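Technical note accompanying the year-one report. For the benefit of new consortium partners, we illustrate the data format agreed upon in the data management plan: each record pairs a sequence with a structure-token string. No post-processing was applied to the example shown here.
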Amino acid sequence: LSTILLRQGDLYAAGGEIAAAERAFHSSASIARALSDAPTLALIDAYRAKMLLAAQRFREAADLASKAANAADPDTVALAATTAGAAYRRLGDARRARRAFEQAIAAVEQQRRSLAGGFDARLRFFERELSPYTALVDLLAANGNAVDALSYARRAKARVIGDTRRIRARRPRGGKAFIEYSICGEAVYAFVVTSD
């Protein structure tokens, strides 16, 4: 029942019904507390933080998401840390935002390594879990750190492919260059890579 109320709260939040979402999250948390269900309480905090972020309550979202990111479950950590990173970014704290996005990426990669199934299963998983990568690329590019932004953009692209075969970093030769790109929400970043 706690999980059903959690999902109901998330649906309300997605529809902009913040008061209804808060009630559903509160009911879900009451049940989880009564059962001493710490993993579900952390997940509820992660979803509440996501709702607070959407409601532009950035400080509250950052604080709650950071707390939830200390959970043991990598799925909860990925959601909470991505939310914390987005909130810190909106607060103008690029250092904490980067640290949170990197924590989310580490959780995603931990999940990816333990996935059962073949290439298709890993591809579907990674398509769902790209948000911390794209958020970090966007943050780094916006702060003029093109080298690290390109590194994370490549890392995101290489993960699924790297599960099936080894990839070597490409470097242009003989005065040539190539363009790498990353699509991040509404922005497209293009990186011109030279041998320098």
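Partners are asked to follow this layout when depositing records. The longest strand covers residues 177-184.
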